[in-house]
Amino acid sequence: MSDALTNLPTFVADSEPWFRDTLRTLVEQPTISPGVTDPSAILAGVEVARAVMGEAGAEVEIVPSGGTPAVIGRFGHPAPKARIVIYNHFDVQPATAANWDQEDPFRFEVRPDPEREFLYLGRGTTDDKGPALCALRAAEWITRHELPIEVVLLWETEEEIGSPNFSDILRARKDLLAGDAVIVSDTIWPSAGHPAISTGLRGGLLASLRLRTAAKETHSGLTGGVARNPLRELASLATAIGNAEFWKLNAIAPPQVEVESYLRTGFDADYFRECHQLERLETDVPLEMMLRMWARPTYEIHGLVGGYTGAGIKSTVPGEGELKISFRLVPGQNPKELLMALAEFATSYNPAVEVEGLGSFDPYQGPITGPVHEAIVHGMTEGFGKRPALVREGGSIGAVPQMARELGVPIHFMPLSLPEHGYHAPNERFDWRQAKGGIASYVHAFAQLARG
């Protein structure tokens, strides 16, 4: 095993042209989530993904679902000591050229960089095609060297719309996917200077609160002071929800050992602010920021819809309005129970309000012990030169609790992206420094598992 690893640095260094060309091939497939556009681009991209996996040596199959299919690539071994499934997603967020420095977000570009070596620009580079290729290249390496481990790559195509049909795929191929563990590579380090392993995800609840008070808008000079204003009432309700306690109940606080690990991440408030282009923060105390984003429930308002929104002002009282909100949940909280609590609170506050749930995700807390976890820690330590800190992820991945439930195996995480890479944002990018560290991390993790 150690003899095989001696050529790994050369293999990784020599992989840059392959990584660049293959990432170009994947990024220039505009695989926008099927909930936003026609699925034909996804279906065309799936065929490209099939070819990419096949060229790397995988046994590839396309698994259909009630929506768009998944691509599964198997790197087998006759007597494996472990079977590990690596989950990534192949669909991407929409991108509008007007918000990007690039003329076309789906036209892949490469730029030299003194710190990151090469920047790879384009929609999908970091979320999630670049990290997926790191796992693919590592799987190709372990197959070449005949390490006794089976690696199965699972590329989903509906993650960006909440994975509504993903259970179809899990049930159809449970015999292949229910191995020793799943590793997800779709999360982010808190800072560029220190590797981190996500240990859990927050859940989520999306909701719409609607209020109708009239059949039409009316002139405020004729009805103002008598007509109920739905936007004012919804704004008042929005504030009341923020001050309430019902959405904070049952949240399990992280253990002290985990909080201490947060402090080792090198989290920098100024770096965070700059990456996300935030001009104002609710707090700039690093530990408090991390606790709020990763380990506590949150409530956000995404839109208050209704009335006149054109230039200037139109002095009417709107007849209806809609408040769009969401909650992020932590272990111990249940989105279905929260929706019932929200409806009870809202209708108690204002009986005319109608509450509708628009989707939910369960929170997930992964294991921080065991051979797969230790292999990931070892792999990232070797790949990036520092022992990773343990953190949580503030966002949600709908596929993760589905995999835990349907496959009955632990879900682990190996983050490779950075805040500056622009998840869901304009000017998305990945970089070679993270990619080569990711390839090496996967190889070392696989090699440790192959030792048994």
State the strand order across the main sheet. 1-2-6-3-7-17
The helix count comes to 16
Helix amount: 25-40%
Q: Round the mean pLDDT to the nearest integer and report it.
A: 95
Distance between the termini: 12 Å
Cα gyration radius (Å): 24 Å
In the CATH hierarchy, what is the class of the largest domain?
Alpha Beta
Biggest beta sheet attributes: 6 strands, mixed
Low-pLDDT segments = none
CATH topology heading of the largest domain: Aminopeptidase
The portion of residues forming beta strands comes to 15-25%
- The second-level CATH architecture of the largest domain is 3-Layer(aba) Sandwich
Count of individual domains? 2
Rough shape? globular
Number of strands: 18
CATH superfamily of the largest domain: Zn peptidases
Sheet/helix structural class = alpha+beta
Protein name: Peptidase M20 dimerisation domain-containing protein
Keywords: Hydrolase, Metal-binding, Protease
GO molecular function, one term: metal ion binding
Domain Peptidase M20 dimerisation: 206-351
